[in-house]
Description:
The protein has 17 helices and 10 strands. It is an alpha+beta fold.
Amino acid sequence: MVFERFIARRYLISKHKLNFISIISILSTIGITIGVAALIVVLSVFNGFGSLVQSFLMNFDPHLRIEIITSAPNQNDLNNLNDNLSRDKKVVSFAPYVSGKVLALRRDLTEIINLKGVVKEKANEIYGVKNSIVFGSDDLSDKSNIPSIIIGIRLADKLQSLVGDTITIVSPAGIERAITQFTLPNSQNFIVSGIFSSQNNEYDASLAFISFEYAQHLLGFRNFFQGYEIKLTDVNHSFRLKDKLLAEFDNNKFSVSTWYDFHRDLYSVMQIERWVAYILLSLIIAVATFNILGSLSMTVIEKKRDIGVLKAMGVKQNSIKKIFMYEGLMIGIIGTLLGVVIGYFILFLQLNYNIYPLDPTQYKIDSLPIELRLSDFFFVSGASMMLSFLASYFPANRASKVNTIEAIKWE
């Protein structure tokens, strides 16, 4: 082992001259360094954006939603479901909900919005409403016998509404009845008690919260509800809890969705983009490893007599192969280590000194989001070393098969 590494190091680092083969080896090292550094930086940025988008989306989304499918669920099933959720130590809070599309009116302005009825005491625990309020409060209690409503900041702009203004909500059932039966539509006035900003344009433009009881009345649920929404201590526990609930209860009675299911298409696109970026940037490393193959092949030709002499001295074929394998792997190791160090240094500068700032008015954040994951460092380094190994194998195998007599005779 020591002998093979010594010869490989001598071939790689020539003390006498800088020839064409040495230049190709240097370019191979630089290429691997750039590829590894670029991959680590880009994957960390993708991680940062992914986590940022997830936090924006989950700001008002529950971690788990259980929807009642059947029109008349068995009370025993509901009791069992409540018991299951109450016993789970990772369930922070859960509550029934109702939601639906309604018409919001103010003066001559009209908007179709998503209305969600929530239990007042649970609104902040499950949806984080209190932390997102920018004007007013998260109070959903009645004011002067008029119920309260909390709306998104973009919706407030559309309706030209401020805290304290009155908004009329008309339910779809009320509109249908008014048309078919020539009666007044089922409507209810609400006072705007708070305006929230969720960092999600869709929610800010179309979502409103009212108390659970008023939502039941407006949306025609009477004494019933649509299902339960749940907040957990660990978002990843939602997948295990979903599997557990689906295994225990009939799928025809309940539908269970996780936070990932709510925006599956978006998360899938983000994952595809991440893999596309990884594949494209891996081509830089692949090209660099092709240079390793070329430089080692030329080294085998240049050192043909040396190989013949070594074989004549009794060096085994396997040792000859190891010499050139070590030489290729040294290039890969040096390039990979330099790439990891440079990549980490760039990320360190961004995290601590914000070398690439963003306009918060346009992107809602003031710096490029970064999230370091040890798995990315191992994954990129492992891929780089694997490509270096494959590129080294064929020239090394060719070197081990050099004919001793032919190699010495022609010198």
